[in-house]
Write a structure and sequence with these properties.
Elements lengths: L8 H11 L14 E6 L1 H11 L2 H4 L5 E12 L5 E12 L7 E7 L16 H9 L6 E5 L17 H18 L7 E10 L1 H16 L5 E8 L5 H4 L9 H16 L6 H4 L19 H6 L11 H8 L2 H9 L4 H8 L10 E6 L12 H9 L6 E5 L1 H8 L12 H30 L1
Parallel strand pairs: 4-5, 4-6, 6-7, 7-8, 8-9
Antiparallel strand pairs: 1-2, 2-3, 3-5
Helix pairs in contact: 5-6, 15-16
Amino acid sequence: MKTIHGLTAIAAAVLLVGCGGGDSSRGDLVETPQALTTLTAAQIDAGTAASGLQPISGKAQCDVRVVALHYSTIGVNSETTDASGVMLIPAGACANASAPLVAYAKGTDVQKPRTLANPSDPETFLLIAMYAAQGYAVVATDYLGYAKSSYSYHPYLHADSEASSVIDSIRAARNAAPLQSALLSGKVMLTGYSQGGHSSMATQRAIERDEPAEINVAAAAHLAGPYNLSGSFKLTNAIAGYQFFVPFLVTAWQKVYGNVYSNVTQAFKAPYSNYIETLLPSPTLNYTTLVTTGDLPGGPGVTPDAARDLVFQPGFIADSQANDNDPLYLDAKKNDLLGWNPKARTLLCGGAGDPTVPPAVHMNVAQADFNSRGLTNVTSVDVDPSVQAAFGVGGVAPTDPTSAAFATYYGNYHGTYEPPFCHAQARALFNTMR
């Protein structure tokens, strides 16, 4: 990364604001970092107590300053672009301590304007409670194509650009730290949830391969991530949320590779083919309103299989399932995260009941792949017993698929129930390496 000689850090940041970051090096600040607020330990404890998170997170040890970041990065073809994100800085009783940096990658987001630089965002507050309030500095990217990013689309589940977005967020956090009087120890921990688990694993692979001298990865925890994308295309039953995730992936990879289909109607049925290529991420709609407006199918009685069959042409899906030379399947192989050797201590976490990213397809396959080469630094944990105990009916997962309890339990499993338990496992690992 280039340095700017003869300028103080503050002057350099001001200069970058003026030029808009167009000639910036990766991770340079496009705008001066903005402190949005500081949450006191008491405020954090009130939030975790009210939400029921506190038995998992513990009480806050630190106040947390929330800082908005806007930084330079690269696109899928290494072109200069920008991304935004958040830095969470331990403050108050922890202000003078040197903190490890947790680099976090977020889960799938269908809302283009959303930024993690928002202390009221549930995902941001989870990071505050689990990491920053316990003495870790945190940086979390919004990814390409979201919030302040000028990139024209989001390259969803594209491993290389996920990794570059996270790597450059680490550089941005290091550049922002002196401007915010934050002390970083130099140790970096990587984690992410759902799409972010794929992103954080891609980031670990890229850093350990390309940037080991610059970034010291002390540990990594990849949570409920889809590491075996090609294997997931062989499934005959659709995952929960299929109508959001798979159209997003198909249209994103068409933009990245240009080979998924020759005409949008080859892949998608009407009316979705009329607008699907520009639908996600949406400037106005969220998961609920995408369905209630009819832009995507869903709602009571619409199973994942039914949603898949409404959106996609049957031949398109059948070919990706059966043909190993199908372009979509080959693109998935490019973005699998198998066949490499992590160097840092690495944890994989998931829940056996997850209907969206089933561990049997992803976590267990990745663990077996690492085991096949004799790696002993990669371990896995199944948090399903904890999820069942906390959220099941009488401590057990409901089994009647026609019941309201079943719909509620599995509808909330991946997005709400599973994440805190996996973050607790990640933090336990990081605590041994901090």
